[in-house]
Automatic annotation (TrEMBL):
The active site is at 235, 280. Signal peptide: none annotated. Its EC number is 3.4.21.53. The keyword Secreted does not apply. Belongs to the peptidase S16 family. This is endopeptidase La. Residues 229-337 form the Lon proteolytic domain. Gene3D superfamilies: 2.30.42.10, 3.30.230.10. GO terms for biological process: proteolysis. Keywords: Hydrolase, Membrane, Protease, Serine protease, Transmembrane, Transmembrane helix. It comes from the Bacteria. It comes from Metabacillus endolithicus. The chain crosses the membrane at residues 12-29. It catalyses: Hydrolysis of proteins in presence of ATP.
Length: 341
């Protein structure tokens, strides 16, 4: 009887634990992720892949909090708790958030490829494919029709190649007028007629309630393949540009070092700040990275670099943490780096 009672009590406790683990709190938990080598996921046709070291992107792990992970995060260094609104836009679904992150990665890839090919004196051309829906205001007309990730090809049977052209066209109309949009979702085209209304936070501005970015395709020579379907966000831009450039040019910029970093990259080569820099420093240190590039933000006192240095000192890392403002600065540092002994 005693054994049966103990087994019954254990099962009850287990069931309670399972139930609690499925309770979603209005928070996300972020923590150090990992450093992932880029050479296996970036392939330039006939590119030089004989790297003695490596270029790696760094990641932050995140997930919806339950009572157990919330308490665990409270007890751990570099585990951060974020309210939902800090991670996702208001009324944004998980699917919309995921699509937005993937598109941000696509834009980051485009900029990384552009700057790397231009610096290597290789062909870069653009083909335009319409306008990408980056965000939606739920209470406006588009809220019940469009989704983040849709691509708009025509408005009132007019073809637009850039988001700026669309915005200029709509801004000339008045509240109450209608526009007919032709859009694509998951490979299928559809059409809808929507009225223009004023924006909740900007009554003098009218629209259908979407934010837009230009959707364009890069045409390059030599060809390039990037297998980044599972990576979201723009923070790998700098490191991708360095890996691509290294494959396009002779020699080995890694010089035998394990090199990681983070930062957005523009098509002109400017490096921008990201979130989670401390957690990425911890992740890189755990994987034995030698050199870490951190956005310098023109030596701002609150830059990613300053935070990275502070974190490095706290965890007593042996990594060299290098401030970077541009793609050219990163390349110059690597060219002047001595071969690893």
């Amino acid at each position: 009887m005693k054994n049966k009672s103990l087994l019954r009590s254990s099962l009850i406790v287990l069931i309670i634990i399972l139930i609690i683990s499925f309770i979603k709190l209005p928070y996300y938990i972020t923590q150090p992720g990992m450093a992932s080598e880029l050479e296996p996921i970036i392939k330039v046709e006939n590119g030089d892949e004989n790297e003695k070291g490596s270029f790696s992107l760094t990641t932050v792990r995140f997930g919806r909090a339950n009572p157990f992970t919330y308490i665990w995060a409270k007890l751990q260094d570099y585990h951060y708790i974020h309210p939902l609104e800090d991670i996702k836009r208001e009324d944004e679904t998980d699917k919309e958030y995921f699509n937005r992150q993937l598109h941000m990665m696509e834009v980051s890839q485009e900029s990384a490829i552009t700057i790397a090919y231009q610096k290597a004196n290789k062909k870069v051309e653009y083909t335009f494919h319409g306008i990408y829906v980056d965000g939606i205001i739920k209470e406006m007309p588009a809220g019940s029709i469009l989704e983040v990730g849709d691509r708009i090809y025509k408005v009132d049977n007019k073809e637009f190649q850039t988001a700026e052209e669309f915005i200029e066209y709509v801004s000339q109309k008045k509240e109450g007028e209608e526009v007919t949009i032709t859009f694509e979702r998951e490979g299928k085209q559809d059409q809808a007629t929507l009225p223009l209304t004023s924006f909740p936070n900007d009554p003098d501005k009218v629209g259908i309630g979407i934010s837009l970015v230009t959707d364009r395709q890069l045409d390059v020579d030599p060809d390039i393949e990037l297998k980044t379907e599972e990576i979201g966000g723009p923070s790998a831009g700098l490191m991708m540009s360095l890996e691509i450039y290294n494959q396009l040019t002779k020699g080995d910029l890694t010089k035998g070092y394990e090199i990681a970093g983070t930062g957005t990259i523009s098509s002109s080569g400017e490096v921008g700040p990201i979130g989670g820099i401390s957690q990425k420093i911890v992740a890189a240190d755990r994987q034995g990275i030698d050199v870490f590039f951190a956005p310098n933000e023109k030596d701002s006192p609150t830059s990613n670099y300053k935070e990275a240095i502070e974190t490095g000192e706290n965890i007593q890392t042996k990594m060299e943490i290098i401030p970077i403002d541009t793609f050219d600065e990163a390349v110059e540092y690597l060219l002047n780096l001595e071969e690893k002994g």
